[in-house]
């Protein structure tokens, strides 16, 4: 099966995760590929969930409530988007199919949908829902929720990949004091950190028999971008400055990770290819890379860059940025990419 990529970002109980997906075959040349992306823009009061196809934008919400589109997945002619919407003092987990929304939660408790994957006729959504005391990591399959954790400690899943008959989800579960990075394969947990410091998985990719993950870990002074291959961890930076690995993609023998690293003054969007970093941001204003997808020889990264006034939803193709939307006063960002 082709590698399907995901990502989504969350910190501790609630943070932001990024998602990316790729339905391309990297060994074949580009032929009329459609580039889908989702994210947010602002009307000056609320965030509006948006989806772009080849740069043309469609609003999923009317702007009367804060809403975020976190993940996009295309199956056949159907476009699925997962996200969440503000509901008074809580959040409602949602999934849109071709713009038609279905609520995954009833709004009585906080619930977040971070990622979506489709396999055949089955639609999987990853996220969490509060039980009133703790956040419970969940997967919704065709709208029916399955708990991955027992609800005694805070947990969340921010990414999901379906590979053959296997369903992989990545995230964390608290041990009571620290967040422990975990991957769940068909509901069975794979523990990636020892619980001494916070560790969180933000994105996973499956390539053959290899399980890749990306996220971050606390090193005692800073949060540092981190990656795992079959449970073996590698840090992407020296840990002097804060950094995050938001999304991972695997193309043959090459592993691409995107996120950001602080230069001591601003956050700089980056892409690491086999551990070697390249800056996407200009280093003088804040930027963040949240998602990645590979298609043929092209590398697409989505995120945002601050222009001095507002955050611009940005899509980089092979390092060259395209502004997806220029929202005022702020809050434009791309969270997920899918190439069809």
Short recap of the structure:
The protein is an all-beta fold. The chain has strands spanning 35-42, 47-53, 56-59, 67-75, 78-87, 90-97, 100-103, 111-119, 122-130, 135-141, 144-147, 155-163, 166-174, 179-185, 188-191, 199-207, 210-218, 223-229, 232-235, 243-251, 254-262, 267-273, 276-279, 287-295, 298-306, 311-317, 320-326, 333-339. The chain is built from no helices and 28 strands.
Describe this structure in words.
Helix content is 0%, strand content 60%. By secondary structure, the chain is mainly β. The strands form seven sheets. Strands 3-2-1-28 form a four-stranded antiparallel β-sheet, with no helix packed on it. Strands 4-5-6-7 form a four-stranded antiparallel β-sheet, with no helix packed on it. The chain is globular and about 45 Å long.
Question: Mind sketching the topology for me?
Answer:
Blueprint: E1 35-42, E2 47-53, E3 56-59, E4 67-75, E5 78-87, E6 90-97, E7 100-103, E8 111-119, E9 122-130, E10 135-141, E11 144-147, E12 155-163, E13 166-174, E14 179-185, E15 188-191, E16 199-207, E17 210-218, E18 223-229, E19 232-235, E20 243-251, E21 254-262, E22 267-273, E23 276-279, E24 287-295, E25 298-306, E26 311-317, E27 320-326, E28 333-339
Antiparallel strand pairs: 1-2, 1-28, 2-3, 4-5, 5-6, 6-7, 8-9, 9-10, 10-11, 12-13, 13-14, 14-15, 16-17, 17-18, 18-19, 20-21, 21-22, 22-23, 24-25, 25-26, 26-27
Mean pLDDT: 91
Note the beta-strand portion. Answer: over 45%
CA(first)-CA(last) distance: 15 Å
Question: Total strand count, please?
Answer: 28
Kindly report the spatial arrangement of strands forming the biggest sheet.
3-2-1-28
Alpha-beta content class: mainly beta
In helices, the fraction of residues equals under 10%
Low-confidence stretches: 1-20, 22-30
């Amino acid at each position: 099966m082709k590698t399907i990529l995901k990502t989504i970002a969350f910190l501790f109980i609630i943070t932001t995760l990024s998602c990316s997906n790729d339905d391309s075959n990297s060994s074949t040349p580009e032929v009329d590929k459609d580039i889908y992306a989702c994210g947010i823009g602002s009307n000056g009061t609320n965030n509006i969930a948006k989806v772009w196809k080849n740069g043309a934008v469609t609003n999923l919400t009317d702007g009367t409530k804060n809403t975020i589109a976190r993940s996009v997945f295309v199956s056949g002619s159907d476009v699925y988007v997962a996200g969440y919407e503000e509901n008074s003092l809580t959040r409602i987990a949602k999934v849109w199919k071709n713009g038609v929304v279905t609520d995954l939660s009833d709004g009585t408790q906080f619930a977040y949908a971070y990622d979506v994957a489709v396999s055949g006729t089955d639609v999987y959504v990853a996220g969490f829902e509060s039980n009133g005391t703790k956040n419970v990591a969940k997967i919704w399959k065709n709208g029916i929720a399955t708990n991955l954790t027992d609800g005694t400690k805070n947990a969340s899943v921010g990414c999901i990949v379906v590979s053959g008959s296997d369903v992989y989800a990545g995230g964390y579960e608290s041990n009571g004091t620290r967040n422990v990075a975990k991957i769940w394969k068909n509901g069975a947990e794979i523990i990636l950190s020892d619980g001494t410091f916070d560790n969180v998985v933000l994105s996973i990719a499956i390539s053959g028999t290899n399980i890749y993950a990306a996220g971050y870990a606390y090193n005692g002074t800073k949060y540092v971008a981190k990656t795992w291959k079959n449970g073996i961890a590698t840090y992407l930076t020296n840990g002097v400055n804060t950094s995050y690995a938001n999304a991972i993609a695997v193309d043959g023998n090459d592993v691409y990770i995107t996120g950001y690293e602080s230069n001591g003054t601003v956050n700089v969007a980056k892409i690491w290819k086999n551990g070697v970093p390249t800056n996407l941001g200009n280093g003088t204003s804040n930027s963040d890379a949240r998602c990645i997808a590979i298609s043929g020889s092209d590398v697409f990264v989505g995120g945002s860059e601050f222009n001095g006034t507002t955050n611009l939803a940005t899509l980089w193709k092979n390092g060259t940025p395209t502004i997806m939307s220029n929202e005022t006063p702020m809050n434009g960002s791309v969270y997920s990419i899918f190439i069809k």
